[in-house]
Amino acid sequence: xxxxxxxxxxxxxxxxxxxxxxxxxxSKVTINDIVQHTGIAKGTFYLYFESKEALVWDFMDxxxxxxxxxxxxxxxxxxxxxxxxxxxxxIMGFVKKHMKMLKIMHNVxxxxxxxxxxxxxxxxxxxxxxxxxxLEKGRLEKxxxxxxxxxxxxxxIVTLHEVVDRVIMDDFPFSIDEVGDELKTITLKLLK
Length: 192
Description:
- The chain has ten helices and no strands.
- By secondary structure, the chain is mainly α.
- The protein folds into two domains: 1-49, Homeodomain-like (Arc Repressor Mutant, subunit A), CATH 1.10.10.60; 63-191.
- The longest helix is centred in the middle third of the chain and has 25 residues, at 116-140.
- The chain is elongated, with a radius of gyration of 19 Å.
- Residues 30-49 bind DNA.
């Protein structure tokens, strides 16, 4: 896959998967559907992915990898109101940019395919650990008024996740921008 053509084939498979996942449930998309849509042989698919499940994990990593890299660097952020609002703005901007894909991922069948516990383990822990380290650094510097950084990281990440989930699934009568503004106010009150 290190060749330009290999990278192109890999990306074409992921793009076909995205289109098919948006048209029908991930559990109903078959490898045959993907190879037919991509125009490759089934054996070629298996050169890149050992299974449909492996494709789905790669798909999510490819789509959301930059957010994972961003959150790992959160420990470099400051603790001013502007810094905290910038964090919320990034998260809300990410959600806004990827709303269609996040709706696909939040489909019960998608979660059932991968397993909700595995999804949460894979993604929530990626965000909670660096967020907790950032909060602990702020607590030790006395820039944040919190007692337990790990608890607060869980609380904030889970709260953000749940609220954003409701917006993604159209369960709230608010836009992502309105929710983002409220989350900034709440987060500032929790941390200061």
